[in-house]
Amino acid sequence: MTERSDPSGEQPTPSRLDRGPLREEVRREIRRLHQLSNRGLWGLAIFILISLGAQRNFNFLPTFSEGARAVLGAAPPVKLISIALVVYSFSALVLILSRMMGGTETYRGWAHLGYLSGFYFFYYYAEALPDNFWAVFAAGATILSLEYYAIWSYCSEAIRTEKELLGKLED
Amino acid sequence: MRSIAAKAVVPVAVAVTGFVVVCCILLYSFIKGDMLNSAIQREVSLAGIIVKSTRYAMLHDDRESLRNIISNIGEQSEVEHSRIFNHSGLIVYSSDPEEVNQLVDKKNAGCVGCHEKEVPATNLGPMEQARRFANEKGHHVVAITAPIYNEPSCSTAECHFHPANLKVLGTLDIGLSAEPLRATLATLAWRMVVFCLMVLVLTVGGVCALLRRNILLPITNLVAYANAATRGNTDAPPPGGIDEIEMLGQSLQSLALRLEKKDRELEALRGRGGEPVPTRPTPPDTFAD
């Protein structure tokens, strides 16, 4: 909740002229909140784009040459990557749910986008992406849509209070 | 989307179902890998048994019984193909008579395992011997290429002409149908889908039922009580259910009672003043919200 002091209640009725900039500020805040809630959609869209690439097993990327593989070393075992994916998605979901209870105004989707691409990459490097694509996709879709839901519900609530404030200012 | 039910159900349902789906998919791919591995192990030992059982016929250069062994094996319903190559890649015996005497390139899927480098490998691990593909009939096949090694008795048998420096005399290539494996995996996948749906229904249903029983019903009762109290009907006891709602109901009741008392006092004052006071109408107790 943005604690916004209600100026019309505290000051002895400011004149119409004084309310102009205040109204402008409230409108700006509403626009900002709209943008914030759209961020969740952007995160989902980018994730779907990355997943489309992963679904084709990144065949548009150059394959690893022997030399590059020698530098990077052996791929981690697929079972370990999968266990890491389970642990990651469990803790991410718990963190999102607890953040939802607190109702904070942060969007963590970008970081998750990074982790999820990392999982795609590790499976790709271990040459097990086709078998495990749907697992990463399901994890990403769940985490990012929850993240979107959190930021969206927070923003729509805040927008409602801002609109009420705007209504009071316009009276 | 402002109702409590939607706010509480959506995140819980998404989180629980999403996590269960991720676990199911990973479990499925673990199980798939394990089943495939054990199928390959079984097939490798089967190929070993076949090589061992042809050993006597080979030592005696008994081509007729070798041909019979291979074609009989090929009649088994699960066997998609079985063939023996000699060391230069010629198909000598096969369950499909048309294939016999065809020359196969070293670049073929079953041969590259050993023939990847300039100097061919003589040993292959069980997983490297296996290959999976769909044959021309559209059946999925797991095939094994097992080497037939040279032994002292092979190069010293009186009828024989294998030079002693040759290490691999030929290869046995046997392919078993993967359809039973695929069918098992498909039923497993369906069971997992049903399981996920059940988890979804249970979480959504459970959260809804709990919310309805513990939050929504008491709140509806409280709203009805508040409406009645506003109309001056304070006779009914405040609704119970959960502590917070009970407390809210009690403070509403005391508020209403105090208001009633003040009303009565005011009425009495006015009555002493001699002015007629219009009594507050008390509408019937309606449960509207």
Helices and strands, with pairings:
The complex is a heterodimer of chains A (171) and B (289).
Chain A: H1 7-10, H2 16-55, H3 66-72, H4 78-102, H5 109-125, H6 129-170
Chain B: H1 4-53, H2 55-59, H3 63-75, E1 79-86, E2 91-94, H4 112-115, H5 126-129, E3 130-134, E4 140-149, H6 152-156, E5 168-177, H7 179-230, H8 243-273
Antiparallel strand pairs in B: 1-2, 1-5, 3-4, 4-5
Helix pairs in contact in B: 1-7, 7-8
What does this structure look like?
The complex is a heterodimer of chains A (171) and B (289). With 171 residues, chain A is an all-alpha fold. In chain A, 79% of the residues lie in helices and 0% in strands. Chain A has one domain (21-170). Chain A has helices at residues 7-10, 16-55, 66-72, 78-102, 109-125, 129-170. Chain A has 6 helices and no strands. By secondary structure, chain B is α+β, with helices and mostly antiparallel strands. Chain B has 2 domains: 4-177, Beta-Lactamase, CATH 3.30.450; 186-273, no CATH class. Chain B has helices at residues 4-53, 55-59, 63-75, 112-115, 126-129, 152-156, 179-230, 243-273, and strands spanning 79-86, 91-94, 130-134, 140-149, 168-177. A 5-stranded antiparallel β-sheet of chain B has the order 2-1-5-4-3. The longest helix of chain B is centred in the C-terminal third of the chain and has 52 residues, at 179-230. Chain B is rod-shaped, with a radius of gyration of 42 Å. Residues 285-289 of chain B have low confidence and may be disordered. The A-B interface holds A 78-79, 82, 85-86, 89-90, 93, 96-97, 100, 131-132, 134-135, 138-139, 141-143, 145-146, 149-150, 153, 156 and B 1, 7, 10-12, 14-15, 17-19, 21-23, 25-26, 29-30, 32-33.
**Number of helices in the DSSP assignment of chain B:** 8
Using the CA coordinates, give the radius of gyration of chain A.
Answer: 23 Å
Give the N-terminus to C-terminus distance of chain B in angstroms. Answer: 19 Å
Return the domain count of chain B. 2
Helix content of chain A: over 70%
CATH topology of the largest domain in chain B: Beta-Lactamase
Instruction: Classify the secondary structure makeup of chain A into a structural class.
Output: mainly alpha
**Largest interface, counted by CB within 8 Å of the partner chain's CB:** A-B, 26 and 19 residues
Instruction: Report, as a whole number of angstroms, the end-to-end distance of chain A.
Output: 24 Å
- Overall outline of chain A: elongated
How many DSSP H or I helices of chain A?
A: 6
Structural class of chain B: alpha+beta
